[in-house]
Structure formats: structure tokens, C-alpha cells
User: Which sequence fits this backbone?
């Protein structure tokens, strides 16, 4: 099955991105035809500093490669290297009713958060539809926050097919629900926009410091604690074995365990979990030309597929 997903280079990727999305992307590439890309044109809608966007684009590429994206099998590229998508985006814009975009919650959310609205931010779902439809994508693994954008994509494909004839495959979404929302060190959802993240590849010393800062309640060491209400355990769940987790939960209920102990163990486990990938990440950092070449080759492979769909759409218009 053809699986496609994109991730915005809007900051350094964090363990919420990894456990909430990237890990599943990497697993899905094994049994499927994976098409994954860096959505830098989408990231432009939030007005990033040009230098940061430049750095984050390469950082996302290195993160995926270090974590095991297999470029022999999976097609991996950067959105801005594929102009076919923006051409299709215009064509799709012309069959997209304004009302469909006005109903999109992610636009409203971003404006409510104080983001200066630009036309790109409003039209964001149409570009996402073009990303998906140009590759005849069958499965689109995304977090729950993106479900509406997949529904909009299906609507837009339907409007086009009804008007100009059968052209696009209607994709299925595939909501990544195996992991609940990963909390950040302040207890809110871990997110680049809240400055509460633990980055996948930040220095080990900084991982330790951030883990020690995770917000907990003020229950004294001797008292029993509710394992369901602890941010540290919510993160430990992602990296500890089932036996170890059960053991901590028991200790919490009994009392006598301080948050400091479990934080120390969490830092150790997080560092251990990502250790095998750090070496590869460091090598890539020394070989940026290789990373750029991977993206360039990926864009060529992606273009071969995108050209065909775009041509089909254009023929149906004329
Ligand atoms: P951010 O909120 O950090 O800007 P994005 O919106 O770019 O993250 O999300 C990229 C992907 O990572 C999405 O599929 C999203 O569902 C997933 N993701 C982001 N934050 C979390 C989190 N805290 N827990 C689980 N999944 C997350
Ligand atoms: N909007 C997605 C996000 O913020 C990123 C994205 C862009 C995407 N184009 C896509 C995801 C196409 C899936 C398919 O997470």
C-alpha cells in the first residue's frame, strides 16, 4: 500500500513527535511503499525566521535518517523541491469552496494562538491535499489533529473528480492512536510552540536537566501517589519495559518513592533508548552534502510519480 506523510520543520523534533508520529512512519515503511517528506512550504505559513527554517529543514532530514528511514525503499524529499505540488495546489484551489476552508479548526486555532494570519495559512489544507493526491496516496498516517485535513482532501478530490472526471484516488486516514498525547515538561502537550520539549537529539546532559524539571505535584515522599496522574510516569511508559513500569506503579501506590528517583531512571532510559541513533546523527551532521544529496535524489524519484498525476489532471482540464 502507498503510505504518505509529511512533517513540518517548524522546530527541532521532540520525543512527542517521535512517539506520536515518526516511530509509526518508520514502522510502516517496512511493509509498504513509503513516501515521506519535509513540509517546509507548510512551515512557511507560520512566518519562521529564514535561517531557522533553513537549519530545521536539514535537522528534520538528519533526524529521520538517523532514526532509520530507509532511503533505498522509502522516497524521502523536501516539499519545496517539487514544484508539481504547488501547481496542483492552484488547480485544486479552484474547486475548493471557501466554506470548506473556513470550517478548518487548525486555522482558527493558530489565529487564536496569536499567529498573524496570511493567505498561505488559510489555504494550508489545499496544499496538503495536493501533497496527498499527487502521489495517489492510499494511507496517510497522521495525528488526530490532522484528521480534518484528510477529510478536506477527500472532499476536494471528490469535487475535482465530479467536475473534470475521475482523476484522484481518495485517501484513507490512519490516525496514529497507539500513543496518547505525550506531555511536555510543564505537563501540557509537548509541543515546539510551548517551549516544553525534550528534543530527540539534544545533548544527554540537557536531557537530564530537562527531565529533572518535569512538573510534579507536591505529595511528600512517604505518601502514596496516583500513577495515572504523573507526567514522569507518562513519559516512562514510552521507554520502560512492562515489568519495570508495573514495578514503579506499585511503588507509587505504596508510598515511600520520591519523584526524584523516577526522574533519574527516566533520564537514563531516554538516553539509552536513543543512544544507538546518536552516533548516526553525529555522522550525518558532519556530512551535510550527503544529506542534501539524499533529499535531491528523493525529489527526483517523487517527481517521476508526481509528473504523471499532474499530467492526468491537466489533460482532464483541457
Ligand atoms: P508540534 O506541536 O511540536 O509543532 P507538530 O504539530 O508539527 O508538532 O506535529 C508533528 C506530528 O507529531 C503530528 O503527527 C502530531 O500529531 C505529532 N505530535 C506532536 N506533538 C505530539 C505529542 N505531544 N504527543 C503525540 N504526538 C505528537
Ligand atoms: N499538516 C501536517 C502537520 O502539521 C504536515 C503535512 C503537510 C502533512 N502535508 C501533509 C501530513 C500531507 C500528511 C500528509 O503535521
Assistant:
Amino acid at each position: 500500500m502507498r503510505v504518505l506523510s509529511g512533517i513540518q520543520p517548524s522546530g527541532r523534533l521532540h520525543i512527542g513527535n517521535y512517539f506520536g508520529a515518526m516511530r509509526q512512519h518508520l514502522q510502516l515503511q517496512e511493509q509498504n511503499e513509503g513516501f515521506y517528506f519535509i513540509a517546509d512550504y507548510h512551515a512557511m505559513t507560520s512566518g519562521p525566521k529564514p535561517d531557522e527554517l533553513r537549519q530545521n529543514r536539514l535537522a528534520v532530514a538528519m533526524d529521520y535518517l538517523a532514526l532509520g528511514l530507509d532511503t533505498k525503499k522509502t522516497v524521502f524529499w523536501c516539499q519545496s523541491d517539487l514544484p508539481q505540488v504547488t501547481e496542483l495546489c492552484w488547480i485544486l484551489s479552484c474547486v475548493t469552496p471557501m466554506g470548506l476552508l473556513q470550517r478548518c479548526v487548525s486555522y482558527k486555532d493558530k489565529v487564536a494562538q496569536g499567529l498573524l494570519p496570511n493567505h498561505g495559512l488559510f489555504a494550508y489544507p489545499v496544499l496538503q491535499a495536493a501533497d496527498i493526491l499527487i502521489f495517489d496516496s492510499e494511507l496517510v498516517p497522521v495525528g488526530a489533529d490532522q484528521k480534518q485535513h484528510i477529510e478536506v482532501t477527500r472532499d476536494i478530490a471528490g469535487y475535482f473528480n465530479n467536475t473534470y472526471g475521475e482523476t484522484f484516488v481518495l485517501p484513507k486516514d490512519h490516525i496514529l492512536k497507539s500513543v496518547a498525547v505525550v506531555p511536555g515538561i510543564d505537563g501540557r502537550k509537548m509541543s515546539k510552540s510551548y517551549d516544553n520539549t525534550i528534543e530527540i537529539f539534544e545533548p544527554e546532559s540537557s536531557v537530564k536537566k530537562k527531565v529533572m524539571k518535569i512538573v510534579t505535584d507536591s505529595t511528600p515522599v512517604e505518601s502514596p501517589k496516583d500513577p495515572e496522574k504523573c507526567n514522569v510516569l507518562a513519559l516512562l511508559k514510552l521507554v520502560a519495559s512492562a515489568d519495570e513500569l508495573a514495578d514503579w506503579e506499585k511503588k507509587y501506590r505504596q508510598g515511600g518513592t520520591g519523584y526524584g528517583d523516577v526522574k533519574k531512571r527516566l533520564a537514563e532510559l531516554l538516553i539509552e533508548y536513543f543512544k544507538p541513533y546518536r552516533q548516526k546523527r553525529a555522522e550525518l551532521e558532519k556530512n551535510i552534502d550527503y544529506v542534501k544529496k539524499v533529499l535531491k535524489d528523493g525529489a527526483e524519484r517523487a517527481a517521476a510519480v508526481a509528473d504523471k498525476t499532474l499530467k492526468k489532471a491537466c489533460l482532464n482540464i483541457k
Remarks:
- The chain has a mean pLDDT of 94.
